[in-house]
Amino acid sequence: MNRSHPAATDADRTTRGGVMTPSDPFVAARADYWRQSAGRPPFRRTSAPNLLAELVHAEYRPDAAPARPPVLASSRDMALARLRHRLRTGNVPSPLACVRLLDGCARTRAAVFDAWPDVVRHHEAGRATAALRQGLRSTRDLDSVRLLLDLAASSCLRPLPTAQLLPLSVGGDRGVRHAAWRLLAAYGCTHLLPSGPGGRADAYERLLGGILRDGPRPALKASACLPGSLSPSPCSWGSWTGRARVPAAVSACS
Questions:
Q1: DSSP H or E stretch at residue 21
Q2: Distances from the Cα of 237 to the Cαs of 104, 197, 224, in angstroms?
Q3: Could you tell me the maximum CA-CA distance found in the chain, to the nearest angstrom?
Q4: Highest mean pLDDT of the ranges 7-21, 176-190, 192-206, 210-224
Q5: Residue whose C-alpha is closest to residue 123's, from 248, 35, 251
Q6: 193 neighbors 214 (Cβ within 8 angstroms)
């Protein structure tokens, strides 16, 4: 996890009066934050509220620095910035905190998915499984259900018994259905995947089902297994995030 503040590159800067200043608004806000932290004057002096400056302060501020109440940033913006702040400082959030953040925006969900291997490693598989189970029982949001299933598959966790997972594998929502297939494969239960094309199946579904049942074809072995893409053999799901998976016991199909 990179906890150092990134510096702007020459491509991010433009020359004004002989002084190199950032041209990208976010890079400028980040550069101003670090300049002021070092006791130097900012590139831009303004008292008006600045959304990017609020987000930069929430994400990069030292732990001892007081949090500022946002003026322009939404609660979802701040939730993402605070999550990224915690990850940058090595303060790994709990599995349940990550599950609750799945109700946020797509960027927050992506940040949770990226952090999940560290979360499971730090808090152990039992707590992570319990958090996923609680999330699956409480949410009615289909995108959250899909992500919860994919988080489970990515770390080979078992938040649902097979009997409860099977209805999701034949349900009407395409994303949830595919995530349930991936989790069944992580359980080692590929024989329970839908075998026929069915009325809803298309070429992608037939190919995904075949890959999960029979293993990867040679041309697909090196492909990245992002959620929604073709996945190789059970419990190789850690490659979704480019990190080593956290193994957990996967019991027999029951």
A1: strand 19-22
A2: 24, 25, 10
A3: 71
A4: 176-190
A5: 248
A6: no
CB 165 within 8 A of CB 184: yes
Residue whose token pair is 């699956």: 136
Spatial distance between the Cα atoms of 201 and 191, rounded to a whole number of angstroms: 18
Q: Tokens for 229? A: 């893409």
Q: Residue for token digits 């995947």? A: 193
Return the pLDDT at 239: 37
Distances from the Cα of 98 to the Cαs of 1, 91, 102, 172, 246, in angstroms? 17, 13, 7, 26, 17
d(CA 144, CA 101): 10
The stretch 9-19 carries a mean pLDDT of: 43
What residue spans of 94-161 are helical by DSSP H?
Answer: 95-101, 106-138, 142-154
Q: Which two tokens stand for residue 42?
A: 């900012």
209 CB-side CA count, 13 A: 18
User: What would the mean pLDDT of 226-253 be, rounded to a whole number?
Assistant: 38
The two tokens of residue 201 are 């199946």
> How far is the first Cα of the chain from the last one, in angstroms, to the nearest whole number?
37
Helix (H) or strand (E) holding 158: none
How many angstroms separate the CA atoms of 23 and 197, rounded? 53
Q: Which two tokens stand for residue 75?
A: 């609660």
CB 163 within 8 A of CB 189: no
Residue 169 binned pLDDT confidence (cut-offs 50, 70, 90): very high
Residue 84 structure tokens: 């990224």
CA distance 89 to 148: 25
Query: Any residues with CB less than 8 A from the CB of 134 and at least 6 apart, and which?
Result: 96, 99
